[in-house]
Design brief:
4-stranded antiparallel beta sheet, binds magnesium ion, about 30% helix, globular, Enolase-like, domain 1, binds 2-succinylbenzoate, about 375 residues
Length: about 375
């Protein structure tokens, strides 16, 4: 497919409620939405970085720079038939997986539209609907957290993830566990601990958690391996797994029992699928993480989560958990069985509303071959 032009949009969208993690508080979520025009079709992609380098070193600022100066110039006017060719072309740009993944997403959308196949079909996904849960941010008090969790349980979510940080870990988790003894519960520390400071988390091992997500630093697969030996509860890696190679390291080191796969964090859907295949071959369960995506990224996450190895519920909640208005005409709804339907239309299977993109764009840039 010949890449005729690429359009970037720096979005800032108000969340229905602030989302707080160990690395900060988000009230308006930023990202870079992009479209690729090719032979009369338009494919959409989302680069899921945030404004601040709290989760990852990538920000909307670095993403804009890398896309504009390096990634897009290498694609304009070229024929890019598939994701493998795309990955080969962007190999020379070190790192910046979130920026690359947004472009690859738009390419998959184009390929699907061209072939009349959904992203789920293209990736080999087997489910028409996927199990989902909700990720609940840090709240002012444990009591407030229990109230938030109750609201989500009433809305129909059957798996809860809570964010923890030093000083707000065992107490918060115990409060939720006591209030809801049977709920499927997991915690996410977003790299807020060290091997030493992690000692305080030991009581979590008695709270019947599905997993403990990313307690240690992003570049610290080695210490996660030491930590996993101290816990019965599976450690789940998120930030540490930035490529299929890192997934292999983690498995070889036995640094985790579970992996959270985000296509953005690993440089694209093709890389996410490779990690899925590797984990499946090793009997390691995976689940689809989220980055507060718009309807564009959410559609992509749903398709990814339909692959057979995604055996745990994803952080893919209904649209109304995040935004009052979205950039897609489609809004994703929670089914009574705590699932969300995987889009079945060609490509991502969503329609982008240009008015909404305009409303929430702070900047945009059209690029064509010179
Ligand atoms: O660590 O999983 C994370 C959101 C932004 C960045 C990192 C994370 C998260 C979430 C929310 O936990 C997941 C979602 O509902 O999109
Ligand atoms: Mg996480």
């Amino acid at each position: 497919m010949k890449i005729d032009s690429i359009h970037l949009y720096h979005l800032s969208m108000p969340l229905v409620a602030p989302f707080e993690t160990s690395f900060g508080r988000t009230t308006d979520r930023e990202c870079i939405l992009l479209s690729i025009c090719s032979e009369g079709l338009t494919g959409w992609g989302e680069c899921a970085m945030d404004r601040d380098p709290g989760y990852s070193y990538e920000t909307t600022g670095t993403g804009w720079h890398i896309l504009k100066e390096f990634l897009i110039p290498g694609l304009l006017g070229r024929d890019v038939p598939d994701a493998a060719d795309f990955q080969h072309r962007v190999e020379g740009v070190r790192g910046h997986p979130l920026a690359k993944a947004g472009l690859e997403m738009a390419l998959w959308d184009l390929i699907g539209q061209r072939l009349g196949k959904s992203l789920r079909e293209l990736l080999g996904g087997e489910r028409q609907k996927v199990d989902v849960g909700v990720s609940v941010g840090l709240q002012a008090t444990p009591q407030e957290l229990v109230r938030r969790v109750e609201v989500y349980l009433q809305a129909g979510y059957r798996r809860i993830k809570i964010k923890i940080k030093p000083g707000r870990d065992v107490g918060d988790t115990r409060a939720v566990r006591t209030a809801f003894p049977k709920v499927r519960l997991q915690v996410d520390a977003n790299s807020a601990y060290t091997l030493e400071s992690c000692q305080v988390l030991q009581p979590l091992d008695e709270l019947d958690l599905l997993l403990i997500e990313q307690p240690l630093n992003e570049d610290d697969i080695w210490d996660h391996a030491k930590l996993q030996k101290l816990f019965r509860t599976p450690i789940c890696l998120d930030e540490s797994i930035v490529s299929p190679r890192h997934a292999r390291y983690a498995l070889e080191m036995q640094a985790c029992g579970i992996i959270n796969i985000k296509a953005g964090r690993v440089g694209g859907l093709s890389q996410a699928a490779l990690i899925h295949d590797l984990c499946r071959a090793h009997g390691i369960p995976v689940w689809c993480g989220g980055m507060l995506e718009t309807g564009v990224g959410r559609a992509s996450n749903l398709a990814l989560a339909s692959l057979p190895g995604f055996s745990l519920p994803g952080d893919i909640s209904a649209s109304d958990r995040y935004y009052l208005e979205d950039v897609t005409r489609e809004r994703f709804k929670l089914n009574p069985d705590s699932t969300i339907d995987v889009p079945s239309g060609a490509g991502l299977g969503v329609t982008v509303d240009p008015e909404m993109v305009k409303k929430y764009s702070r900047a945009d840039l059209a690029m064509e071959p010179d």
